[in-house]
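User: For documentation purposes, I need each entry recorded in a consistent format: the amino acid sequence on its own, followed directly by the corresponding structure tokens. There are two entries in this batch. Please keep commentary to a minimum and don't merge the entries.

Assistant: Recorded as requested. Entry 1:
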Amino acid sequence: MTDAAHLRARSEAEAAPLPPLLARAEHLAGTVLLGEHGRRRAGMGNDFWQYRPVMPGDARRDIDWRRSGKSDAQFVRQLEWQIAQSVMIWVDDAASMRFSSDASLPEKADRARVLALAVSILLNRAGERVGLTGQALPPRRGETQILRLAEALTQESDEDYGTPDLNGLLPHGRALFISDFLGSIDAVRAALTSAADRGVQGVLLHLLDPAEEAFPYRGRTIFESMGGTMAHETLKASDLRDRYLERLAERKAELQSLCAATGWHYGLHHSSDPAQSALLWLYRAFDGGMSR
């Protein structure tokens, strides 16, 4: 195979996931009814929002005389408040996210990418700017940005567990972190603390496979990290269950405590649950769950 043919084949292979990912994200975003977005309020802007009756203190120049001429009352024409927010997203691309306990379930990485892209589509439609941390992809609006996001989200890391990347995080902006958060809790603590120090409000979505939640293993079992760097064999996996579940509960409690202390929202999602429920929760967290 010539170098040109090899390059073309490689490029086509790398681009192949983009159309399905975009299609699924668009379909998922379409299932969420866009309600009245948080930025739709009276204020400075160019788009008409609503008429309201004149109130004491209103200037005569604010009165819409055409609308007022149709009735005995006078009305003020209000414009929509249009201050676009910047939302930076970090999606864990480490090897642990490529785990799926059953062929009928998506990999955690696949669910994370679809959710990240779908919420980006919704935020873009609502007038927000969206970007990715650590990807040299600053926040922008538009369909071209959605294509850039889709391409960047297909990248994978060889690391066993991911660490939140704050590169590109804008002061006083907003952020979304999606991960299984099975790696170093110290790294997560440092990231959330640093983000909060910059005035960043955010959402942390804890994504787990149902087997990681229930630990259904019995008998002789070999546990191996997805990156292949760690392995542990046991003859009675059930003996590890209580200790594992205790440590998982501690991890979830610590993540919730970190979010509460830094003003972030914590959400837990299992890859066996409908993606629509997670997307709706995410969009509501950004829409009405954060002060402007």
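Entry 2:
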Amino acid sequence: MTMLIKTLAVVAAGTVLATSAFAQSAKDIRGASPYVAVENEPAPKLIVDPPLPEGLAHGIFWAQYRVENLRIAPVFGPEAARVSPRVGHLHITVDDLPWWWADPSDNNTVDIAGLPPGQHKVKISLVDANHNVFPGQVVTLEFTVPDQKGAQAHSHKS
């Protein structure tokens, strides 16, 4: 019985140490507080996952993203460009069309519906409050939307 108690005590102590060693602060996860200016901010970074196949099967592009060293926020212009911690938003272009739209929502997923079957390309750019692309922070995803007629015909067979 004493050996069992000692073993449990060692396991519990090890768990506490491991949890403390791997615990991350809110700042580690969320970034700097908006109440304090950040000196020498590291460059922002855009990370985008491949589109979710569940959406592509229905002509919908869903790609999750996250950013580092920047807050996505609906603020624009020269004054906003001087804010610290840094703020910005996304520009999204579909199939090399000449227009784009700004997404300042930070909802973690780009959502584009109504894509016809075939090859497509979505370009996601991380930009500052003045719409300037941060160097190297453009992700282009190429993907295929399957023929939905064939999928619908197959699903209606009895």
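Summary note for entry 2:
The longest helix spans residues 2-22.
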